[in-house]
Every structure is written in structure tokens, then in C-alpha cells.
Amino acid sequence: MALLKDLAASRVVIEGVEPLIDGGRFAVKRMENEPLTVTADIFSDGHEIIAAALVTHGGEVEGLETPFVFIGNDRWGATVRFATPGPYRYSIIAWRDVFGTWASDTKKKRDAGVDIALELREGEAILEQAAESGRGSREDAKALKALRARVEKFRKLKDEAALYAVFTEAETIELLRRCGVRANLSRYPVQVPVWVDREAAGFSAWYELMPRSQSGDPKRHGTFDDVIARLPDIREMGFDVLYFPPIHPIGKSNRKGKNNSVTAKEGEPGSPYAIGSHEGGHKDIHPELGSFADFQRLVTRAADHGLELALDFAIQCSPDHPWIKQHKGWFDWRPDGSIKYAENPPKKYQDIVNVDFYGPDAIPSLWVELRDIVLFWLDKGVRIFRVDNPHTKPFPFWEWMIAEVRAVDPGVIFLAEAFTRPKLMKRLAKVGYNQSYSYFTWRNLKWELREYLTELTKEECAEYMRPNFFVNTPDINPLFLHTSGRPGFRIRAALAATLAGNYGVYSGFELCEYEPLVTGKEEYKDSEKYEIRAFDWKREGHIRDDLALLNRLRQSEPALRDFRNLEFYQFWNDNVLYYGKRTADLSSFILVMVTLDPHQPQGGHFEVPLWEFGLPDNGTVKVEDLVNDRQFVWSGKVQHWWFEPAELPYAIFRLSV
Amino acid sequence: MALLKDLAASRVVIEGVEPLIDGGRFAVKRMENEPLTVTADIFSDGHEIIAAALVTHGGEVEGLETPFVFIGNDRWGATVRFATPGPYRYSIIAWRDVFGTWASDTKKKRDAGVDIALELREGEAILEQAAESGRGSREDAKALKALRARVEKFRKLKDEAALYAVFTEAETIELLRRCGVRANLSRYPVQVPVWVDREAAGFSAWYELMPRSQSGDPKRHGTFDDVIARLPDIREMGFDVLYFPPIHPIGKSNRKGKNNSVTAKEGEPGSPYAIGSHEGGHKDIHPELGSFADFQRLVTRAADHGLELALDFAIQCSPDHPWIKQHKGWFDWRPDGSIKYAENPPKKYQDIVNVDFYGPDAIPSLWVELRDIVLFWLDKGVRIFRVDNPHTKPFPFWEWMIAEVRAVDPGVIFLAEAFTRPKLMKRLAKVGYNQSYSYFTWRNLKWELREYLTELTKEECAEYMRPNFFVNTPDINPLFLHTSGRPGFRIRAALAATLAGNYGVYSGFELCEYEPLVTGKEEYKDSEKYEIRAFDWKREGHIRDDLALLNRLRQSEPALRDFRNLEFYQFWNDNVLYYGKRTADLSSFILVMVTLDPHQPQGGHFEVPLWEFGLPDNGTVKVEDLVNDRQFVWSGKVQHWWFEPAELPYAIFRLSV
User: Fold this and answer.
1) Mean pLDDT for each 10-residue chunk of chain A (657 residues)?
2) Rounded distance between C-alpha atoms, residue A415 and residue A433, angstroms
3) What is the pLDDT of residue A1?
4) How confident is the model at residue B324 (pLDDT cuts 50, 70, 90)?
5) Which residues of B participate in catalysis according to the annotation?
6) Residue B319 lies in a domain
7) For residue B640, what are the β-bridge partners?
8) Which of A223, A481, B602, B651 could make an S-S bridge to B593, C-beta 3.0–4.6 Å?
């Protein structure tokens, strides 16, 4: 009879619960104080009125109940927010509302002139059961006392109208809401996990640089102190995360030379991604950059400038990495005693070997050591990690490792540098990555930007994946920028900064650097990956002012802190992307237009979303042009705009009524 | 470390599995031998080649593996069929294909002229591991032996070409497929339930009649023998299920009279839905219909005519039902000692009381008794039950009861008579109902038929819900038929019979009966629910020939046995619905056109789906007009058709090349 009893306990159906990632296998993600609206189909047999509550656990509350509100077509919804980062979970309870059903039926009968003497006796029983239920006791013993008082009062009354009035009083209704018997209380069987992040997981502006190129002299290896000297400059542009490629000792064997040549000349610094030498591995600093004391000073000074440091976590090893001798069981050895190089046959990457996550001694010791590397740098004050090529490492490793680190500090943020197939990128986000690189870098046309952004902001992945729109990286010098000139850099900056919550710039972008190693290919010429460079950071033609403006608006306009609030609007020109973001209360309502054509003037008519303010098509809104600091009004739904890309390829407006 | 070990075991990701109803909470449904195609996203980290298998259990096989085939974008698919009704389940395993990866990489290197001596030694190790794995042993000890022989052969060879050739031989590839080590074997954690029905669950033509109206004389109560006399008539129309409203003793208290009047006159028979009197309850036969021996004879004779009997399972009781005295704890008593009548305040249904499924003594004794009623009639040869108003009874009861009955006979079919909100109807199908009444009765326009049928055949519910398209019922005399005349009846019959797998007709429909009790309302005048009627079953104006034709085509054309194969095509007239059904091999390719306008001629151009045959737009197909028994050809994609509704409001064609 066990099955029957179990089944019978679920009289009220709770199904179609959203959000729910893979049946609750993975957490829904939110930022602190970001609303989470849970919806579900909730219904029962028959005509009884039902009620339901969202029950949340985590943080400082256990079992907090938020009432569900009926939406329509058996769908219900409830909204909660979580104040601090960490793990939460939600579930749903639903029950038949005995008093509600009684009140509704009795009112109908009374309105129809039917005698309700019997109904009143049934109502009395409902009151009595509530007073005896004890459900209120945990919450409020006073409520139970008040209920008993109601029963006593009821028993002294005689007149039908007076008796009925007891049940229509607000106090009775409130007391029964709190303590009334919940008939056929049913529970959704899944405790749905929710992961709450600090805001930087979903809203951040990254600036990437190579510390060794910060001396201002290509002949002198840059140091952490050189980076410290550049902090005011970076902060002036308004960035809040400062990210370095690996800062560890670089291997000498098979070291790569300038422009990725297979052999380095004497004195060439090698790729920082060939990690490990006799000077140490992942827990060490490349000596030419400075000491741990220098690093600590940098962390502190960066924070003083409002910049948080992000480090690279790249698991591959140079052939000189200490692990190779110390931990043979962490690598995949070939019959001739060599280690498999990283390869994509017939190509080989000779300066790097990969660990074997399922090698003979790898579980758990390799996994533990890798986790400990992250904890080591966390201990040094680093709470953001950009992870190199995570899709070539096992998903279970990331899930385990990220959970372990979060148990120590729920504010640690991992960005997945996976440029791979869409389902792998989504899986990395599911297993715990807080941010993900995206395909933005290769989306230039209006239709493809709309399609991609709609997927990212409206489909299920919006519940767990937060893209970081990098406009370029040391490996990606986008083809669009090879021919776009300065207007193209401004276009891509405006798109990234206003479309996404997280976006990033690799240094040189602000100088409109675009020289490719090979025409039509994405590798930079004289890439900093293989040599030390020096730049004049304020040379003519830079776009520092655009970046500063965009970052300032991102900070001042709450609408731009959200990602999923993106809406596309109509601009009758396929070269102009037009979209808006707004807060729920419309107090921050931003419209953005970007011409996607860096060469020719473009313009056309567009729709002002008057309907979002509840205005008719001939309504009027106040407009602030946030780029040119002008104010005017738009009267009527159809307006016109014009772009001269060499002057200004984007427009940003703030609307109000 | 338990979590790490568990996680690590799932290196290959298996997600996005379809079909999967509520995470595997409910069964996917199929008919015997109907294909089940399972698709899933399957991928792993890195570049290794992976492989996967669908593993099915149930019937006569345990753990049958069907290889998955790569579709694209990390999606894989596999198709299976189940031969006999009953419970099945499927799951998925996936692994890294060590040999496949080796073979692919080694071929690339060899093609690029790279020395593969080391690779050949690794290949030898792969062969050895397979020979030692024992994975083949269960299946085939010979395979392991053959593998060992391969290893020996390999060791005697010297020449690189000869050594490499060992791995490109078909036998090696087949042996490694069967016995090769499955690296990182990962298992999808859900055993997805599949319920397999006999064909009648998804393909059936129902004919409903009131046995007491079959005497041919409204003054004489019909008997089972009168029904036997009508069997040839019914079979002539081609139906295969014969369904009766309740045949149990009818209560006398508060008996309803002619046309649903609140009090019956002396001699009026009452509604058969007021079940139970001093003559018995749900396990008894209304004496005027005959004896159990008569009933058994009817079951047998119906079967002789190719008709299977379906009974009504209506749980409500008349106030005279024996249970009311025998099982007080099965009812909801009011403070004055009365039982709550069925009511929808302020309306009351005084001839019926409902049991209380959660009453003080209801669990388990009421639930068991209700199950035993079904088992009782199953024992009398009834394997199809039409259940009255199941949505007013608890879903857990149905789930439990249907499972219990199926454990006795997996061929029992339950039809849910729930005309209620969409999610409740779907839930009933999920908890086990094999067939469901539908909204078809109220869908008359082209757009609404297309929309509804697309939901039913293409959305998730198609995996578990099988509608039964009744054209009318004793309670539903559709408004469309009040004014449509005979063409309207032919229209609705053609739609129901060709759109749905299951469809049904309530007797009188073939005579174009439509007189309502109240103009604009769906109740029949002089409804058989409250009185005995007599009809001339072959009176002028009947549409018996249409029904016979439609049912004959349903039997002869395999394409019409399927429901989910429905495709709508373009007919440039909003009054003409045009659709097709075809078998996968195109050997049965049926096109149907139905004018939805019973009054005016309609016609227009339409598209011949030449593309389904791979033909160009100017291609030619052979056409059989299955209604008029003519043959012709259509050359070119756009053709024309014309309907005179009074003559023939539908067209059915069979296409071939």
C-alpha cells in the first residue's frame, strides 16, 4: 500500500515548474537581489479553490513561504529575491483551500437566497479545526488564541447575518490564511537549486592586458609595478575588472618565438600559456614580473582604483613543469616514454602538454592540486578566474572544483574561455561557470545579432549562462575590425557595453589596433603572446572617451545592469540595430541605436516604444541624448535618426514621461 | 570523495533527452510496433570520438543495445519498436571510443606522411585490452577468441603497411565494436518509462448507443438481445468499438424525468448515470437489460462481428446505492446527517452523490473497491472503459487504479471523458489514460482546426495523449450541426475519421439528428439519457455510406492508422481544410480535403506535395480518387478542386508515383 499512500499524498498537481534546469540537476542563477519569478501549473481535481506557496531555503531563512498568485490557464507565479551570494533552493507546496472554497460557495448560495444554516455550522467546524491545528503555533501562538476567541464569539451569536459576518471580517480571513487547515497538502518533489552570485558575475567591464608589456619599452620586461603605474589610466576608462593572462614561470623547452614561430631566439620571452619551468609552476610568479609582495601591492592598489584583479587559470604545462617529474601518474605516457603533446592531428603544439584527468594517479590527487591552485590565489586576494579552454577538460572536474571553491568563498567568479559548440558552452555554464565567452565577436549583422541575443536573453540558457562580450582577445582580432577603421571599434564597443551585462576589451582595442599576422586571419601581428610590446596609450585616434562614456552610463543607469531585460525595437534600416533596456518601474529607460555600417551614412525611421509607457501612438516622451547631453521630446511613435559613422556611429537615449 | 567519484563517472554528457515526460515521472506512450525515436545531446570534453547506445528493458528483452547515430550539433538519435503491450523503459549509455579516436588520428597522421610506429604500438595495446576486457564474453566468447588471434597475428607482422592493415580490416573493426573497451562509460541517470499499448488504444472507431433504446419501440425497454440484433447493422458501417453508457441498476430517489426534469413521472426510466438501487450497484446489471448470461452472449456475438464492447465507468451514486448504507466512511456527511449532493453552487444535481476519495474510510477500501469493479467487468470480457468525468476525481486515484488493472491485463484501455481545462486533460493522459475526449467537437474553422491538431500531433502531449474525436455525445449536440443540414454531418464525419486515430459517433448522428432541447444549446431534445427512444436506423437522409467508406479506408490505408503523421498543406481558400498522412515509405500516401462550409460551394487552388516524393514543381503523380473510385494524374504543383457541399463535401486521394 506504500505506493497508494505516496500517490494519494499528491492530490494537488504541481508541474511545469520554471525555471528548472535539467529537472533540478543544475542551479538556476541569479545575482544578489535580482528577482526570481517561479511559475508552475498548479491544479486539483474538482472545483475546490486551491492555494500554493513558494518555499525557499538558504542564506538566513529556512522555509520562507511566498504565496503564489494565479496568472491564468492553471498557471501560478511567485517572485523572491536573495540578498547574499550562496546556495539556495526552492520548492512548492499547494493545498485545497477549505475555507476559501466554503466562503465562495456559501456566498453564492446566500446571494441566491438559499438557506445557509448548515453552511454556517460547517464554517464553525473550519474555525475550530484551525484553532486546533497547531499550524499557527510555530509562527504565532497569538493567532491560535485569537482563533479560539473567534470560535467562542461565534457560538454566542444567533442571527444568520451576524454569524455570516464573522467569516467576512478581515481578521477571520487573515487568521485562517495563517492557521487554516491545509487540506491535501502536496509537495513538489524537487528542491530546485538556485545559485546566487555577487553582482560582478553578471555585470562587469573587463580590461585585459599583458603585464610584461606595461614598461613602455619593448626591450624591458614589464613588472607589477609598471601595471600599478597604469591603474589610473585604466580606471579613467571606467573598467572594473583587470585581467592578466598567466603570470607563472614560462617553460624553456620548445619555447615559441615571435609570431608563433616554432623555435624562440635567445632572449625571447615565450608564451605565458606554456606554464612551468625550473622556477616553478601554477603557484609561482614569473620572476621578471615581480615578487609575491609586489603582487599583493598590486591587488591592493587596484582595489583602491575600483579595479578587481582577475587571473588566468590555464591547466596545460610546459615540458619543463615540475609536475612532470613529480607526478608521472598525472600524464598520459606513450609506449616510448614520451608524453602526448597537445595535438589536433596532424598539428602539434610542442610547447604544451596536457594533464590526463583520468590518468592512473589523477583522481583525486591531480583534481585536488588543481583546486588548491585556485584556493592558493584566492588566498592572495584573487576572486575572479578566467579559465583557459575549459571545454577540453572534463565537465565533472569543473563541477567538483567550482563547488569546492565556492564552499570556501561563494563570491569567486569563473569565466569560461570556451569558443566551441553551443551545447558544450552551455554545459560549462550549467556545471558552475559564472560567466562565458560568447560568439558575439563573430556576430556583425543585424539579423544575427538579434537572433543570438534573443537566444541568450530569452531562452532557457538565460537562467544559467551569462555571456561576457569580449570585443577582442589576444587570439581574436575580429575580421570586421581589419577594414572598419575607427568607427568599427566604436560600433563594437557600443554594442558590447550596452547589449551585455559583462563585456571586455583586450588592451590595444582602445587604440584601434588591428594589424593581422596574415591577411584575412584572426591572429594579431607581433602578438604580445610571443613578445614584449610597448604602446602609446593615448596616441591619436584612440577611443578612450567612448569607453569612458559607455562605462559611466553602465554605472549610472540601472537598466544597463540587467541583461535579460533586452528588447529589440523596429528601425526600418537593416544596417541599424535598435534596442532598449528598462527597469520594471520605467525609472531607467534606455534606448540604444547602433549603425552596423562603419563606412556609409545610414538612417531611417524607427518606432518609439510609447506603448511601454502606456501611451497612445501620438503620445509624447521626453528624451535625453546621453551621448551629446541634449534634451528634446519625441511626439508620435514614428521618428527619424541619421548616422554619420565617422562622427558618431551610435546613439543612446534616456526616455521619460 | 564520494561526490567526486560519482561526478567523475559521468565524463560523457548525456542531456536534452527526448521524449521525456516530466523528467521521467510519466511514461511515453507507443502502440505495439510503433517506432520510438529517442534523441539526446551527447558529447564530451576534448576531441575524442564518442559512441552511445540506447538501452531498452521490458517485454522479452533486458538491456538490448541500439546504437545511436549522430544527427548534428551534438545531437544523436536511435529508433526502437516494442512488439507487445506492457511496461518498458529506456536509458542511454555513452563512452569515449578509444579505438575510433586512435583510428581517425592515426589515419590523418599516416595520410600526412608522419611516422606511425608509436601509434601502431598503441593500437596493439587497444587490441590487447579488448581481448582481456571480457566485455564480449557475455555476448560471444568467440569474439574474444578472435581478438586474441588478431593480437597474435599482429605480433608476427613487421612491415608498417601490414601492421596498419590489421586495423582497417572489417573484422577488426567489428570485433572492437563488440568487445572494445568503453572508456569513461557514462550512464543517463533516468530509466525513462515507456508504456506500450495494443493498437486499439490509438486506432479505433467507436459507436455509442443506449441499449435500452434498441427495441425499436419507445414503450418497450431494450435488452442486450435487442443490441445483438443490431450488431450486423453497426458492423456494416465499419465500427470496431461498441460503447454503452452505464448498464447498472438506476436509482429511484430524486430520479430525473424526460428532458432532465427534476422529478420523474411513474414509469420513466431515469438517467443511467444515477447508478445504484436496491437491485444493486456497479457490479450489477439493470434487470430490464437482461442477465449476466445475456451480457456474456452479447460480448461474444459482438466479437464475432468484429466489435469490441466498451463500458462506462461512472463513479457517482444514486442516493439508493447500496454503498451509502454499507460504507458511511466513503461519503462526505454534513452536520445534519445528509450527504453532500453533487453541486456547482447554487446549482444542485439531486439524483447523484459523489464518493469522498479522501473520506475517513476511503483509503484504501474505497479505492480498492473501485479498482475491483473494473477487474470485475474485465473478468466478464470488457477491456475498454470510458470513464465519466475523471477530472472531478483525484489524479492519484487514477494513476494507482490504472496501474493496478494493467498489472492484470496490459491490454485494458481507458478513455477519459474530461471536457475541462487543457492541463487537466493532459494530466489525466499522463497518469495513465490511453485515450482522451478532445475539443474537436468545438473546432469548426480552418485556423482553429490547424492550430489544435498541430498541438495534438506535434507538441509534447503527442507523446502521451491520444485524442478520441467524438463528433457528438449524448451531452453534446454541436451547434454547428443545428444549422448545417446533412452536409455538415458528412463534413464532421470525414474530419473526425481522417484527422484522428480514434474517433467516435453517438447513434443518431448517422441519421443527422440535431433537434436541441433549447435553441442555441447543446442538449438534445428528448434525450435518451432520460427516456427510451426508437429510431428507423435506415431512414432517408442517413449518412451510413459515408461512415462505411471512411471506416473502410481507415482499415485499408496504413497512413490513416497513424495520428502524429498529420501534415497540413496549402489550399488557397479559408473554407477548405487540406491535409495529408503518409507512411514513412510513402507506400500509403493519402490527401484529404474537406470544405468546412456546408452551405455554399467552395473551391480553389491547392499545392500537391510533390516535394514529399522528391519531385520537382512540374512533376507528375498518379491520383486515385478514393471516394469516387476514379484515377487520374496531377502534373504540376498547383491544382484546382471544387466542392458542392450538397453533393460531396470532402475528397480523399491516394497518391503514388
Assistant:
1) 83 98 98 97 95 95 94 98 97 96 94 93 93 69 88 91 94 91 95 98 98 97 98 97 98 94 93 97 98 98 98 96 96 91 74 92 96 98 98 97 98 97 98 98 98 98 98 98 98 98 98 97 96 96 98 98 97 98 97 98 98 98 97 98 98 98
2) 6
3) 56
4) very high
5) 388, 417
6) no
7) B605
8) B651
Residue of B5, B6, B7 for testing the chain A interface, max A β-carbons within 10 Å: B7
B435 in a known ligand binding site: no
- Facing residue for B11 by CB, picked from A8, A396, A424: A396
User: So what's the pLDDT on residue B60?
Assistant: 84
SS3 content of chain B, % helix, strand, coil (to 5): 35, 25, 40
Cell numbers describing residue B240: 470496431
Q: Which residues of A are known catalytic residues?
A: 388, 417
Set of cell numbers at residue A448: 544575427
**CA-CA distance, B370 to B393, in Å (whole number)?**
12
Mean pLDDT of the region B245-274: 95
- Measured between alpha carbons, how far is A641 from A651 in angstroms, rounded to an integer? 9
Q: For residue B381, give the amino acid letter.
A: G
Show residues of chain A in contact with B395, CB under 8 Å.
10-11, 13, 45
CATH (domain of B437): 3.20.20.80
Distance from CA of A6 to the nearest CA of B (A): 9
pLDDT at A44: 97
Q: How far apart are CA B475 and CA B496, in angstroms?
A: 18
Enter the C-alpha cell of residue B436. 482522451
Kindly list the strands in the beta sheet with B36-43, ordered across the sheet, starting from the edge strand earlier in the chain. B13-18, B36-43, B75-80, B69-72
* Nearest-CA distance A193 → chain B (Å): 16
pLDDT in tens, B546-569: 999 999 999 999 999 999 999 999
In DSSP terms, B587 is beta-bridged to none
Boundary (domain end) residue, out of B163, B196, B229: B196
Q: What angle do CA B169, B174, B180 make, to 5 degrees?
A: 110
Q: Which three cell numbers stand for residue B410?
A: 496490459
Q: Element (H or E) spanning A376, and its range? A: helix A365-379
Residue B151 placed within a domain: yes
Burial of A254 (0-12, 13-18, 19+ CB in 10 A): buried
> Helix or strand or coil: residue B191?
coil
Query: Residue B137 pLDDT more than 60?
Result: no
Which chain B residues contact residue A424 at CB under 8 A? 43, 45, 74
Instruction: Tell me if the pTM is above 0.90.
Output: yes
Helix H, strand E, coil C: the string for A333-366 is ECCCCCECEEEECCEEEEEEECCCCCCCCCCCHH
Q: Are A45 and A19 in contact (CB under 8 A)?
A: no
Is B530 marked as binding a ligand?
Answer: yes
Boundaries of domain holding B589: 566-656
Yes or no, beta carbons of A7 and B396 under 8 Å apart = yes
Beta strand extents in B321-410 (DSSP E only): 341-344, 347-353, 384-388
Give me chain B's average pLDDT, please: 95
pLDDT above 70 (res B389): yes
**A467 and A520 share one domain:** yes
- Comparing CB atoms, the residue among A47, A358, A422 nearest residue B344 is A47
Maximum distance among all alpha carbons in chain B? 105
CB A380 within 8 A of CB A352: no
* B403 contacts on A by Cβ (under 8 Å): 3
Measured between alpha carbons, how far is A194 from A79 in angstroms, rounded to an integer?
Answer: 13
Contacts across the A-B interface (CB distance below 8 Å): 144
Q: Per-residue pLDDT tens for B405-416? A: 999 999 999 999
Q: Which stretches of A278-356 are DSSP H helices?
A: 292-304, 322-326
Q: Is residue B596 part of a domain?
A: yes
Residue B597 counted as an annotated binding residue: no
User: Which chain A residue has its CA at the smallest distance from B16's CA?
Assistant: A22
For residue B321, being part of any structural domain is answered with no
Confidence band of B341 (pLDDT split at 50, 70, 90): confident
Q: Is the dihedral of CA A77, A82, A88, A93 positive or negative?
A: negative
